[in-house]
TrEMBL record:
This protein's name: Restriction endonuclease
Transmembrane segments: 21-40, 52-69
Gene Ontology MF term list: endonuclease activity
InterPro entries listed in its UniProt record: Restrct_endonuc-II-like, Restrct_endonuc_IV_Mrr, tRNA_endonuc-like_dom_sf, Type_IV_Methyl-Rstrct_Enzyme
Alphabetical keyword list: Endonuclease, Hydrolase, Membrane, Nuclease, Transmembrane, Transmembrane helix
Tagged with keyword Flavoprotein: no
One Pfam family from the record: Mrr_cat
Residues covered by the Restriction endonuclease type IV Mrr domain: 123-233
Length: 251
């Protein structure tokens, strides 16, 4: 008598690890993440430049989510479309209203100070002449010209005062230890009236004048503007030096 053989169920073999498929999966996942990141970055840039369109996009997304939720509740397709259309219409209206609204006015920039005194010590001789010419123009002089240079015969700036007098100015950009001497005044005094036909002759310096120079200037009618008088003229504490017609005293 033969005994029936019991069939044994074959054992399931474990699924083999597929390196190629795994690598492809992670590659696709990385690509999807990169594309998603670029998309989010682009949308963020658009939202920053066009906040109105960001509002529109958010409204559209909200309408889509609402439609999806309503669909899960077995609402009709017509009702979902109507709700989405209403949300989109409202978002479009708000966006158009935002575009039509005037942009807020920018606050005016603060005006620069009008009495700012330049640092004459850092100016070159040519820049110092330009600064003196600017002071003359500020105080109402006309036909202001910088004529200093080779062969100027002592005249650096010429102008017409508000009263119509011809001004001839010599500029001396000296240091504190280098005063304007009498020889400088004598050379200028020999040309300012006879050659340049000045009604008022001035010598302006960033330093000071020696006593003999001031005596010569007083005899010849030359107005001396020393450092302190120049600063007072620049910041408006003293009138223009040609207004007095005499030697400007240090303040």
């Amino acid at each position: 008598m033969t005994m029936p053989q019991r069939r044994t169920r074959p054992m399931h073999r474990g699924r083999r690890f597929d390196l190629r498929a795994t690598a492809m999966f992670f590659g696709l996942l990385a690509t999807a993440l990169i594309v998603t990141g670029f998309a989010v970055r682009a949308l963020a840039g658009v939202a920053q430049r066009r906040p109105v369109w960001a509002v529109v996009l958010l409204c559209v997304v909200a309408a889509a989510l609402l439609a999806h939720g309503r669909r899960r509740r077995r609402l009709s397709a017509a009702r979902i479309a109507r709700r989405a259309g209403e949300a989109l219409e409202q978002a479009t209206t708000e966006a158009l209203d935002a575009l039509d609204s005037p942009a807020p006015a920018l606050a005016p920039a603060p005006a620069p100070p009008t009495n700012r005194v330049p640092d004459y010590d850092v100016l070159s001789p040519e820049e110092f002449e330009e600064a003196i010419a600017a002071l003359c123009a500020r105080d109402g002089c006309a036909q202001v010209r910088v004529v200093g240079g080779a062969g100027d015969l002592g005249a650096d700036v010429v102008a017409l005062s508000p009263e119509g007098r011809r001004l001839v100015i010599q500029c001396k950009r000296y240091g504190d230890d280098n005063k304007v001497g009498s020889q400088d005044l004598q050379r200028f005094g020999g040309t300012c009236f006879a050659v340049h036909e000045a009604d008022v002759a001035l010598v302006v310096t960033t330093s000071d004048f020696t006593a003999p120079a001031e005596e010569y200037a007083e005899r010849c009618g030359i107005v001396c503007v020393a450092r302190d008088a120049l600063l007072a003229w620049s910041d408006g504490r003293a009138p223009a030096p040609w207004a007095a017609g005499t030697v400007a005293q240090d303040l």
